[in-house]
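Re: that backbone. Tokens:
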């Protein structure tokens, strides 16, 4: 048995009063973050050091006396904001991230995080209907896509308002799981654009091309939005007061949300299947950030979401006792799996592999997946 932390995301349906409180908390969290980021910047510029979490926490107490409206929202959420700021600076000094930047009201997704303190964040049964108790919000109606186990401990929650207007809550929980049975199987996976993934056993997962499948609808919605924005500007109306503009923006946001949901659904299903089938999984250690600079491939690579797939494989393998091996991508597409000969001429077309040395032929992606597995096993 193993105790893990995992996140579950559910859509929630707050009342009008609860939604006002959510937006108020998001605004206050942003204000606190930006206020103390400015103070940290000043300290960093003058001394080369940031303000510690302890200093900003004391500063928050003083700030509440000046900006009394901060007392109306969840105090734990404001403390969590300071923890996020402290973590952002630590990552910056450890050269993991860029320097922290100010948060904007114009961010497409607005959110705040609260933590479980003295059991103030839990599932409550109300006349046979499970609802979620959230600090300062009370009982919130949730669309439960899965039932949480009775022994599940909720550690923290992030409430997010999406551009589509939908409200979601992500619950970070602690659960105990059993390791998957061993299969004594290993696989190499070649990621691609036409085929989303090709396995060394010959299995191929087609790329659903979620963005391309909805591209026409998205372009049409974006054109409607552009026309309505131009019309509102000509009429001298503020965009936030133009109802037709807001409706068009909502439609564009919902299409983007649908694309993202379909993409994540595909990746979750594939990665879960692979983790169940194989004890060892090998993939290429691709630098997608550099590959995205290629204007011809950037759109397709972004739609395929290789980095997201890698993230999913990483934590799922860790949960279930599987081994994920990252191998160098050098020459995996040009090497003959049969004889080991490496030559650019081995790949006459995008899908065909024909070794100029031994004459071996195969699907190029399958050959590549076999090379990835061979490199992971130390054979090559």
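Recovered sequence:
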């Amino acid at each position: 048995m193993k105790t893990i932390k995992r996140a579950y995301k559910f859509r929630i349906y707050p009342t009008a009063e609860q939604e006002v409180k959510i937006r108020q908390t998001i605004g206050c969290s942003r204000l606190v973050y930006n206020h103390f980021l400015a103070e940290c910047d000043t300290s960093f510029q003058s001394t080369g050091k940031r303000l510690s979490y302890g200093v900003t926490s004391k500063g928050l107490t003083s700030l509440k006396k000046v900006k009394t409206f901060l007392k109306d929202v969840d105090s734990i959420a404001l403390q969590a904001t300071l923890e996020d700021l402290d973590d952002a600076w630590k990552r910056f000094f450890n050269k993991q991230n860029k320097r922290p930047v100010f948060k904007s009201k114009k961010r497409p997704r607005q959110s705040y995080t609260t933590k479980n303190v003295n059991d103030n964040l839990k599932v409550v049964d109300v006349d046979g209907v499970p609802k979620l108790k959230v600090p300062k919000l009370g009982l919130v109606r949730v669309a439960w896509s899965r039932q949480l186990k009775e022994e599940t401990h909720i550690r923290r929650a992030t409430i997010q308002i999406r551009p589509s207007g939908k409200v979601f809550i992500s619950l970070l929980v602690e659960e105990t799981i059993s390791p998957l049975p061993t299969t004594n199987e290993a696989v190499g996976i070649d990621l691609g654009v036409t085929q989303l993934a090709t396995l060394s056993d010959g299995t191929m997962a087609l790329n659903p091309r979620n963005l391309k499948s909805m591209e026409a609808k998205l372009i049409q919605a974006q054109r409607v939005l552009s026309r309505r924005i131009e019309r509102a500007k000509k009429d001298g109306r503020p965009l936030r007061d133009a109802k037709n503009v807001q409706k068009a923006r909502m439609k564009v946001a919902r299409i983007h949300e649908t694309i993202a949901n379909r993409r994540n659904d595909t990746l979750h299903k594939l990665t879960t299947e692979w983790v169940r089938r194989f004890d060892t999984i090998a993939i290429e250690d691709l630098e997608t950030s550099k590959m995205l600079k290629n204007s011809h491939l950037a759109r397709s690579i972004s739609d395929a979401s290789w980095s997201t797939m890698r993230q999913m494989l990483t934590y799922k393998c860790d949960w279930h006792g599987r081994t994920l091996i990252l191998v160098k991508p050098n020459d995996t597409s040009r090497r003959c799996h049969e004889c080991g000969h490496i030559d650019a001429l081995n790949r006459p077309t995008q899908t065909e592999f024909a070794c100029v040395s031994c004459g071996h032929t195969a699907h190029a992606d399958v050959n590549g997946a076999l090379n990835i597995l061979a490199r992971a096993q130390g054979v090559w």
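The chain has a mean pLDDT of 93. The chain is about 45% helix and 20% strand.
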